[in-house]
Amino acid sequence: MSLSDTLTEDLKTAMKARDKVALNVIRMIKTSLTNERIKLGHDLNDDEQLTVLSRELKQRKESRQEFADAGRQDLVDGLDAEIKLVEKYAPKQLSEDEVKKIVTDTVSEVGASSMADFGKVMGSVMPKLKGRADGSIVNKTVKSLLSK
């Protein structure tokens, strides 16, 4: 079943259950996918759908952090529920150990030895981890490995 079909079925279920949070999140995801499809001028492939889901997830995580810093626990709780729903549609995230292994392998592949090779490593590793790892974790891991 495609992502679009899954979202449509989950939207129907959320409507029947009168789940407002799920309704809002699913509608936002569907709208983002539609907007991206219109912008690109063709049906989205899996990578493009993954990019949209990653963007939605990142926006919510950033907002959650800002609300947490401002002491707005009521808004943090709402965003936690939204993040959980968006994660349901995104691929499983890799652990930091799994990311470190892939980054280590990539550093060896490109022959990186110093921070001067940071861009080369990031350019090579990000397509491998697209949508499966947070970019900030990848960035931190690459920096730690290259600064040794």
From TrEMBL:
SUPFAM superfamilies: GatB/YqeY motif (SSF89095). Gene3D superfamilies: 1.10.10.410, Uncharacterised protein YqeY/AIM41 PF09424, N-terminal domain (1.10.1510.10). Pfam families: YqeY. InterPro entries: Asn/Gln_tRNA_amidoTrase-B-like, GatB_Yqey_C_2, YqeY/Aim41, YqeY/Aim41_N. One of its GO terms (molecular function) is carbon-nitrogen ligase activity, with glutamine as amido-N-donor. It comes from the Bacteria. This is GatB/YqeY domain-containing protein. The lineage of its organism: Bacteria, Bacillati, Bacillota, Bacilli, Lactobacillales.
